[in-house]
Amino acid sequence: MTLVTVGKIQPIASDSARRRGSTGRPWGNTNTQGEEARVSVEELLIAELLIFFFSFSMFQITLQLQRCARDITNMSQQAVNGISHRGRVLTLDSMNPNVKRVEYAVRGPIVQRAVQIEKELKEGVKKPFTEVIKANIGDAHAMGQKPITFFRQVLALCSYPALLEDSKFPEDAKKRAQRILEACGGHSIGAYSTSQGIECIRQDVARYIEKRDGGIPSNPDNIYLSTGASDAIVTILKLLVCGEGRDRTGVMISIPQYPLYSAALADLGAVQINYYLDEDNCWSLNITELRRALNAAREHCNPRVLCIINPGNPTGQVQSRQCIEDVIRFAKEEHLFLMADEVYQDNVYAEGCQFHSFKKVLFEMGPEYSNTVEMASFHSTSKCYMGECGFRGGYMEVINLDPEVKAQLIKLVSVRLCPPVPGQALLDLVVNPPQPDEPSYATFMKERTAVLSTLAEKARLTEQIFNTVPGITCNPVQGAMYTFPGITLPQKAIDKAKELGLVPDMFYCMRLLEEDGICLVPGSGFGQREGTYHFRMTILPPTDKLKVVLQKIREFHLRFTQEFS
Amino acid sequence: MWNMKQLAYGALARRANQIKDELRQGVRKPYKEVIDVFQGDLHGAGMKPLTFVRQVLAACVYPPLINSNNLPLDVRQRAQKELGRCVGGSVGSYSAAAGIPEIVHSISEFIKRRDGGIPSHPENIYISPGSQWSISNILNVLVNREASPRTGVLIPVPCYNITVLSITQLGAVTVPYYLSEEQAWALQVEELQRALESAKGVCSPVALYVINPGNPAGYVQSQKSVQEVIRFAWEKRLFLLVDELYQDCVYGENCEFVSYKRTLSEMGPPFSGTVELASFHSVSKGFLGECGLRAGYVELVNLDPAVMKHIHTIFSKDSCAPVLGQIALDLMTDPPKPGDPSYPLYKQVGPENCTLVINSLPGFSCPPLEGGLFAFPRLNLTPKAVQKAKVTAEMQEDPDTFYCTRLLEEGGVFTSPGWEYGQKEGTYHIRFCIAAPQDIMEELLRRLSSFHMTFMKDFS
């Protein structure tokens, strides 16, 4: 029955890797952009379907062999009368063991408790606070950020095209909406798009990347639209993870990390390789540490992937150009596939910091690198200045991918049918915003600048206030939307937590939630050096509220420290 | 050999796009437009979105519309209500992992109404970006990639191909059971029994996948048939995965959709408290046809609470379903009532006519369509046509692919060949979506008839 498994992605990727092992690249030879094999979803489906089709005949043979043994009496009646107990099919013992290992701290137990407290407040239960502030998640609109008017106008027009007759909508919004609708099946955002995403939107994304990267070409065929960036990240990991035992794929992730990575790796049964960011140096990435982690991991797995989050989540650092170059050189030397999570690329606040895309640096390093290093870069509509998490828009650009692997990638994304079309439309607006000669330009720029400058102010404020608290040390929030300060916990608090069966920073965060109604995520959910404790807080609450939150945390921390010392 | 086949089929989809391009560039063909009925894509096939749904979505997206007089009052009130449920009053924020709580609740109310009052618990419902997403999440929990023998899932033949792809991608083995075409695609327990036995020594079946109403075949299971399947699942310890996407598309005479959940509950003990069931539904089909919004849900019944905790984590990891899609789900499960200014009017197009025309064509046979969105007629090709298909274009082509290719080239109708969904050896089918608007359907049937007559004459 091996035929049936041909459809499994991992063995194919791994075969391909093995076959091409001599080149030393995880997935084989260089292919220059533009000459990829163009394989349609249908072509790929067929491979699967054929396998499925062939399996019939195999089953027919089995059937014939077993026909004589077949009992054609009514089994149902027998069973009903004969069996009194029937256990569950799906139990903790029988379920996919990988699923058991999946954890997702950002929406973990502390958030579930926060929801419960909110319910209690609604029911009139008395608490020392009147509302729960959920600073656990990077959700700008939840914190009161207003959407960008132009984006929402176009999306409203796309949703209900009769509004195109409404004179209150600006002409440039109508023009954009018409263009998007024309690219949709039946001129409706309710039709499926191709699994890779609407072609003209992919073209716009490619042009946007070119502009961002100072003219380095981007090929729309390398762009895959997705259901938020998470979907694309998981998809690429699915393609990369294979092998058994010591040959199992190892994936290097930063510690602290964004828990999507650890969750996806657990789900896929991949080996997580931790490399630690340097907290004492503004959470910077250190190549010596990368090398240490890699060498240690080579003892027990096959490291093939290096994930980088820049600007950092939860740590808020922005990588220097030099650092990116070092990482790329390291990836090339060690034959690693690079996954660059760049969803916070517009969120850079610190003076002297600038976002450099991995792709740009890669191409500036010359053909020796730009023709060989395999990479995927991820972006999303959920962050930056628009913060439209609810639309689930995103994309990835893949570089130097083996055409055969791309064919597998198309097949993988086709089971999702297509990314949400309103999210695709929104992405199109993000990459193709109003231009200076268009009527919506002034308002758009005003709104965009206001959001980004407020965020920059909040980033400074957070660092400043936290660093006045004895026992809290906070690195500058150079970018992204979070702070990840270190907290010193008294031994007695640590003991108390152990007694309660909680990790110490979970105990800390739970107490904060219960006492002040502030929901943070404990550092243990992201990973941290042993013996250190942190929490992640988003800097998104409106400035006034943020000041209150910071003040409350300060008071709580002092109280907590005193209680346990 | 399958590489050849792959090329042949890819060529069909590519060719359809090419022809569309050529037509746009003014190349002359016997038709002005390709009728694309290859997918169950209602808007793509020309169905207009429901005004009420789109007005509410527009107002949610751009709240100043709530205060304008451009939209009916009930639309504006509804949009206000939906926004009130969104965190921060914006469709741009994340929702809870399972979906917006009030919407999950209105889904549970919808299920309860549908099932004659049998309770549905919101905590057992998860909203996802389309029903396929839910299906793969549940399969992921069920399939142990490292198990030996491997995990098996029973699937109908013919079967919706994307689900087959999801199953194989997770590393499970599909175990086919054939629906009886002679009996209007009925699902027979003896065949399930045979299929299960055929898996012995091959894999370890843990789940039974059922599609009701059917896709690609347009059957609707009777309550008796549903009962038999449930009994079988109970007896053989199988987890039931029930694709009920087309529950609103039932039009056969004396046909009625009866949900698995309802039947299970009405069967009483020992079944009602034991058989584990996942039922899937979506905004993509039914009277909304909003495929592009990507929202569906799963209702889970009788699951081990310890397992439910992990299912929650798996859905959490995906962040949440697109919020506009969630709102569309709410509008679907809680639509305007008669008397509301926006009470939706949507008339299903006449599938009866469709079977009538197909069955009038020599060489075509199609059991009466009872439900779903597709016709899956059987094509009795002459030996000459089969022979011709096999020598066409330097490669062996499936006879049904050959037919679909010619139909596309000469008739301008894009359909899909039956082998994609699985069919008994030596039988041929084509699948096409029957939910296009009346005028397009009429044109489709005209083109199909005229093409078919010529085809049969050419190969008689």
TrEMBL record, chain A:
GO cellular component: cytoplasm
Name of one Pfam family that matches: Aminotran_1_2
Entry keyword set: Aminotransferase, Pyridoxal phosphate, Transferase
Catalytic activity, reaction form: L-alanine + 2-oxoglutarate = pyruvate + L-glutamate
Gene Ontology molecular function: any one: pyridoxal phosphate binding
Annotated GO biological process: L-alanine catabolic process
UniProt entry tagged with the keyword rRNA-binding: no
Region (Disordered): 15-34
The keyword Nucleotide-binding is annotated on this UniProt entry: no
Boundaries of every Aminotransferase class I/classII large domain copy: 154-553
Superkingdom per UniProt: Eukaryota
Pathway: Amino-acid degradation; L-alanine degradation via transaminase pathway; pyruvate from L-alanine: step 1/1
EC number: 2.6.1.2
Cofactor: pyridoxal 5'-phosphate
Subunit: Homodimer.
Similarity comment text for this entry: Belongs to the class-I pyridoxal-phosphate-dependent aminotransferase family. Alanine aminotransferase subfamily.
Descriptive protein name: alanine transaminase
Species: Oreochromis niloticus
Automatic annotation (TrEMBL), chain B:
Pathway(s) served: Amino-acid degradation; L-alanine degradation via transaminase pathway; pyruvate from L-alanine: step 1/1
Protein family (similarity comment): Belongs to the class-I pyridoxal-phosphate-dependent aminotransferase family. Alanine aminotransferase subfamily.
Name this protein carries in UniProt: alanine transaminase
CDD domains reported for this sequence: AAT_like
Complexes and interactors: Homodimer.
Pfam family name, one: Aminotran_1_2
Known cofactor(s): pyridoxal 5'-phosphate
Protein origin, superkingdom: Eukaryota
GO biological process, one term: L-alanine catabolic process
PANTHER family the record matches: ALANINE AMINOTRANSFERASE (PTHR11751), ALANINE TRANSAMINASE (PTHR11751:SF469)
EC number: 2.6.1.2
GO molecular function, one term: L-alanine:2-oxoglutarate aminotransferase activity
Domain Aminotransferase class I/classII large: 68-448
InterPro entries on file: ALAT1/2-like, Aminotransferase_I/II_large, PyrdxlP-dep_Trfase, PyrdxlP-dep_Trfase_major, PyrdxlP-dep_Trfase_small
Gene3D superfamilies: 1.10.287.1970, Aspartate Aminotransferase, domain 1, Type I PLP-dependent aspartate aminotransferase-like (Major domain)
The reaction(s) this protein catalyses: L-alanine + 2-oxoglutarate = pyruvate + L-glutamate
UniProt keyword terms in alphabetical order: Aminotransferase, Pyridoxal phosphate, Transferase
Keyword Transferase in record: yes
